[in-house]
Write a sequence for this structure.
């Protein structure tokens, strides 16, 4: 079993790319579990509701993301390990590490509340400037504050990538097919497909 997680700032195309990788691996007769955080289960649903308001303390949100992750690991990832060749997750702990630390949570504490998580075999970081992603989506309604946040998140992700050997940084500024081909090459280099 190979466990791969996709990470990147909002709008980076993770969801598209994770599905394309699933399709590619299926064509190689591999069995795949495609999953995502926050989950579409009670804790994840609560998180989505809460993050729309500004009043919930950042630490409470970090704890909810960690709780959703424990449920994800225990009820989905671990049971899937015996059943599937590949588990692909759209976001994982590294989102918490980047986003919640930028929101002001202490990094050591974030690691502490997420301790015991399963280390992925590969972390695919889809990287580009936020402007590239916005241009591609034709977005014009994104608020400035969020753009500044995403810029900082990009830098945090890149810093994190330097400290971990299992991160593969993919240039996400190119078109969907080119990004997909790079991901396929990276996966083929690392694992027997
Ligand atoms: P999601 O619905 O997956 O949005 P997207 O499709 O844009 O990735 O995630 C919702 C938001 O939750 C997203 O902005 C990232 C944030 N998030 C955190 O802040 N911490 C976390 O640990 C996770 C998993 C997500």
């Amino acid at each position: 079993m190979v466990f791969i997680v996709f990470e990147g700032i909002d709008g980076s195309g993770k969801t598209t790319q994770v599905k394309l990788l699933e399709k590619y691996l299926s064509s190689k007769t591999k069995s795949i579990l495609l999953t995502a955080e926050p989950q579409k289960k009670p804790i994840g649903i609560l998180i989505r509701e809460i993050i729309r308001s500004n009043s919930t303390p950042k630490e409470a949100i970090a704890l909810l993301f960690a709780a959703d992750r424990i449920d994800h690991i225990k009820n989905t990832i671990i049971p899937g390990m015996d059943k599937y060749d590949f588990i692909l997750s759209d976001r994982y702990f590294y989102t918490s590490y980047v986003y919640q630390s930028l929101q002001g949570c202490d990094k050591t504490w974030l690691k502490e509340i997420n301790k015991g998580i399963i280390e992925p075999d590969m972390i695919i970081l889809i990287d580009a400037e936020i402007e590239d992603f916005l241009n591609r989506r034709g977005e014009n309604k994104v608020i400035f504050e969020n753009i500044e946040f995403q810029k900082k998140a990009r830098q945090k992700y890149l810093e994190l990538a330097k400290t971990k050997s299992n991160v593969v940084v993919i240039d996400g500024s190119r078109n969907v097919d080119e990004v997909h081909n790079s991901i396929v090459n990276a996966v083929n280099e690392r694992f027997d497909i």
In short: The longest strand covers residues 2-7.
